[in-house]
Amino acid sequence: MKILLTGANGYIGMRLLSRLLELGHKVVCAVRDKNRLSIDNRAKTLVDIVEVDFLEDFEPGKIPKDIDVAYYLIHSMTSSISDFDEKEAIAARNFNTYISETHCKQVIYLSGIVNEEKLSKHLSSRKNVEDILYQGNFNLTVLRAGIIVGSGSSSFEIIRDLCEKLPIMITPKWVLTKSQPIAIRDVINFLTGVLGNESTFNQSFDIGGPDVLTYKEMLHQYAKVRGFKNWIFTVPIMTPKLSSYWLYFVTSTSYKLAMNLVDSMKMEVVARDSRLQQLLGLETHSYQEAIEMAFKRIEQNLVISSWKDSIASGQVQEDLEKYIQVPKYGVLKDVQKLAVKDSKRTLDNIWRIGGDTGWYYGSWLWKIRGFFDKLNGGPGLRRGRTHPDKLFPGDALDFWRVLLADKKGKRLLLFAEMKLPGEAWLEFKIDDKDVLHQIATFRPKGLKGRLYWYSVLPFHYFIFGGMIKNIASA
Question: Which domain holds residue 178?
């Protein structure tokens, strides 16, 4: 089959793409920026890539006409607190218009469980998108899931952060809300199981794992799998806003996502039936099994995708392509050069920078900078990195975003997403004479920006000088 995959760069999309290619399908990836599709060059030869922004006005001819099935995996919850529901409605309507130009027989939409009478804004938006898609001239199959558990998923990473960092928790009442978590592996099995299956056309199905648990029970079971104990006490005084700040400062989630998650965590998300599971003959994994599988992927460095690599997890909500040309005028720079004896080893060191490896010099200073960035509303260092030694354009890297990762050309370019009175780039490149160039560029915004640069200049002297030496010799 020829399949259109929207949201191909997202957490679900990246994993679904891998499975669809394994099954031998021809996949067309619809992304806003083709340079941000975080797959290797071999995989890129197996797919077609089209650039489509479903929030913009319809442009005829962008989607191939011979599409058989399309996956709709577009969500805007991480990008906004106030108007994400409007954006999701616009995207769904534009999607219907694009698909009307094709021969698409089936659209598969991954939604949320919406069985409560009163829904959160997030779940209400998902239901509204479902209603809009049902108006399209295709057969719609809707899969409604609750919490998705897998390495790199936002739910898993939040639970992981809370349990690993806080053995004793004072929590809001929503931790007593029931949910039906599902393993990411099972979600992918359901998404591919309904592919071309006419018995699922024009129907909506709840999907979930075998366990119905409160969030408190999920936190306890996580600790049990990890081999330690935690204590959780609930209090009625934590408002949604206070709860959001609690999640934001303790976990690696963005504040926008925290606000929208807290709003939904007050709703029970429990499947009404298991019709689809019976129809497809699928066995689902327990919550504990899902956690164990997630850690196997982490330990083997096989995490395919992470919610943190979404553009919406950072401060820059625009097209990153506009930042890839580092400015030459009106900027302040720190330039370091060093001849290297082993360019391959040095390049490997560059590609491992950040995350657990750190920044090669003054790790405690980087942590302090990350702490103050988090206090100021930035991402801090908690996003880490998805892969220990692989980088792709668009990846999150602590409080940086990867703009260019050209290992063959021996160049890595990062753009700062920390809160700054200006814009900052950090570039590493090795020239033909095996000289490592490390260039920090800062474009200040007014006097405040210049004062900031000169105030941190003494630290730059030690940090950047030590960093290039250690990268070359580590």
Answer: 2-309
